[in-house]
Amino acid sequence: MESVIRALVVYFFLMVVFRVAGRRTLAEMTGFDLILMLIISETTQEALIDDDKSLTNAALLILTLVGTNIVLSVLKYYSSTLDKWIDGRAFIIVENGKCLKDRMARARVDQGDIMEAARRNHGLKTLDQIKYAVLERDGQISIIPREETGES
User: Fold this and answer.
1) How many C-beta atoms lie closer than 10 Å to residue 49's C-beta?
2) Could you please report the per-residue DSSP string of the chain?
3) How many CB atoms lie within 10 A of CB 133?
4) What is the pLDDT along the chain (152 residues), one digit of tens a residue?
5) Domain boundaries defined on the chain
6) What contacts 125, CB < 8 A, 6 or more positions away?
7) Residue 87 and residue 65: Cα distance in Å, rounded?
8) Is the dihedral of CA 83, 85, 86, 89 positive or negative?
9) Rg of the chain over all Cα atoms, to the nearest angstrom
10) Looking at the domain that runs over 91-145, which CATH code has it been given?
11) Could you tell me which of 6, 68, 71, 16 has the C-alpha nearest to residue 43?
């Protein structure tokens, strides 16, 4: 039973840490982020297994973690509040070519991130070409370009 409690504590602790860290932290991993994830993984393993390295304990931990994930996904389906807390909401960070600085600061997104998404997905070169930039729930930035005027 101690293993199950340890697994639940670690699961929810990591959920809170990554939620506080923000979506952009998980959206694009750099080499530094990968190293951090490996260290967290090793530390988490040590916290989970304590001195019990048996296959039974490993199976119990895996079932606990996967089961917790399944239960949370079902609860998120029925509770929009829980869904928003766990996964966040998509929100606009550029509107009609104007950066919404307060939202960008809260999400730790800069103009360079937005322009990278605009170039990569639509070949846009300036903010004026962007109707909306949306920070999605998964941390990616979606770009909606302005409509071209039909003038020839």
Assistant:
1) 16
2) -HHHHHHHHHHHHHHHHHHHH-HHHHHS--HHHHHHHHHHHHHHHHHHHTT---HHHHHHHHHHHHHHHHHHHHHHHH-HHHHHHHH---EEEEETTEE-HHHHHHHT--HHHHHHHHHHHH---SGGGEEEEEE-TTS-EEEEEPPPP---
3) 25
4) 787 888 888 888 888 887 777 665 556 666 666 677 777 787 777 777 777 777 777 778 888 888 888 898 899 899 999 888 888 888 999 999 999 999 999 888 899 999 999 999 899 999 999 999 999 888 889 999 998 755 54
5) 2-87, 91-145
6) 118, 119
7) 18
8) positive
9) 20
10) 3.30.240.20
11) 6
With tokens 């600085």, the residue in question is 101
The tokens for 116 are 């990278």
